[in-house]
Structure formats: C-alpha cells, structure tokens
Amino acid sequence: MRDNIVWLASYPKSGNTWLRIFLANLVQGNNDFENPIINLPLSSIASNRRLFDEAVGYPSSDLYHDEIAALRSTAYQYISPEIDKTYYMKIHDAYQPSRASQKAIYLIRNPLDVVVSFAAHRNRSIDETLQFMSKMDAKLARKKSGLSQQLCQPLLSWRRHVLSWVDNPDIPVHVVRYEDMLTNPLATFTGVIVFLGLSFDSLSIQRAFQLSDFEHLKKYEAKHGFNEKSAKAKCFFRQGQSGGWRSILTERQVASIRQKHADVMRRFGYLNRRTLGG
Question: How many domains is the chain partitioned into structurally?
Fold first, then answer.
C-alpha cells in the first residue's frame, strides 16, 4: 500500500495556496523574481475530478455523491504510479482516513478573517457565509444541476473541520497559523520544511518567501491572472493580512462566530485579548 501523500490541508481562504506557491518556488529553486511560480497544476487538489476518474477507471459523472465519497480514500492510493515519490496534495475536505496518507500540514486562520475573505471569494454576503461556516454538514462543489470541475467536498463546520485534522489519530499533523506566516515568516516556513524532512538552507527559504510575497503575488495576478481564482471573485489574492475583520464585521457577527467556534478559537489563540481575535 502506498502512503506517499502529504496533505496540505485547510479550511478555504486560510493560506493553503500561499504555502503551495512557497514550496513550489523553494523545491524548484526558482530565482526569477519577474516570474514567480504561481499557477500551480490543477491536479494538485484532492477534489480534482479528472484525478479521481483516472484512479478509479470509471467516470465520476455517472456516480452519486455518496458513491464518490465512498471511493475517494481508496482512489488516493492509485494517483501516483511511483510508490517512492512524495506527493504534496492540497485538500479542503474535512479529514478522512486513507492508507495513502503519510502526514499533513494543517493551516489555520482566525475565523473572523476567514469569513470576510471567504465571502468575497464566493461572492456571497457575510451573514450567508457565517451561516455556511457553522453548518454541521457544509459542503463545497455540491451543485444541484450540471457538473462541477471538482468533486463534492465535505467541509463540516469551521470548528469541526479544524478538529477533524488536528485531532486525527492516524497521521502526524503540523499546525501552521496563517498569522504566524505573516508575522514570523522565516521561522514558520522553516518549521514546515523541517516537518516535511526537506533540507534547505535559510537563504533558500528566504528567497522562496520573497518570491511568494503576498504583494508580489497580487501584482502578478493583476497582470497575468491566476488559474485558481473563482469565477465569482474579483481576484484571488485580496489583502493578505490579519485583523481586517475589525473594520468590516458587526458586533453581532463577531459575537456569533465567537459563540459557535469558541473552543477552537481559544485553543489556537484567537480568543486571547493579546492576540488577533481578542
């Protein structure tokens, strides 16, 4: 059995794409600041329909959502023909056991900021997105008609999504806070590299981080586009900051998020008055 997938897992709009771009620039040794590696292969997300179809040998368009869900953990074992090659796979699904899993990086972000960014990404209101993030059975890409390019992805609620990964009993998980990527990038990204068992010096890591600087990515997207931008969103890379919720959310919205996700927010420092969610 293959256990060569390293999951880059997160709830949407929590820094997953930023981390993947950093890793791509680092591993490929890119030195061209005019052309950072930004448009990553679509196949690098676990919900890619084509990957599933190739692994299963049967078109997912002929299957029900529940049938696809039952096959996905097994399908991951057949994604790679190279048993000894590590695959870094983006995933937004809540955790599901799979024999293909080796370890995981889990990116977490203050849900007060997530709701603002996720609402813009979905082109929905803050209140609708707030309700979506609290739904116990929330799913992405579950269209009532037509065929989505991605498979249906069970998110669960924000707090349940986090707990499904960080408290899973099967594989080691390294938790990365989005806020630490902003305030202490070199140490945070170095911690990721150490956990993955990769060997790069601090200068290489610093260069990859500069290539993946958020403002740099934002300008590049404005000029060249970005293949992961939602058709509903104006842009993918919006602000790349923390605490922006303070000038956007109402007191009622803040109170609702804190009430529904308090235990996980407190656990990861988002309800401490000295931190971002205080």
Answer: 1
Q: Over the stretch 138-186, which tens digit does the pLDDT of each residue have?
A: 999 876 556 777 899 999 999 999 999 999 999 999 999 999 998 998 8
Across 12-16, 50-54, 170-174, 211-215, the highest mean pLDDT is recorded for 170-174
Look up the CATH number of the domain holding residue 14.
Answer: 3.40.50.300
Query: Which residues constitute the domain of residue 146?
Result: 5-109+136-233
278 assigned to some structural domain: no
What is the pTM (predicted TM-score) of this model? 0.88
For 115-149, b/e burial (b = at least 16 CB within 10 A) is bbbbbbbbeeebeebbebbbeeebbbeeeeeeeee
DSSP E strand stretches across 11-152 = 87-91, 101-108, 139-140
Structure tokens at 233: 């969103």
Q: What is the DSSP letter of 197?
A: T
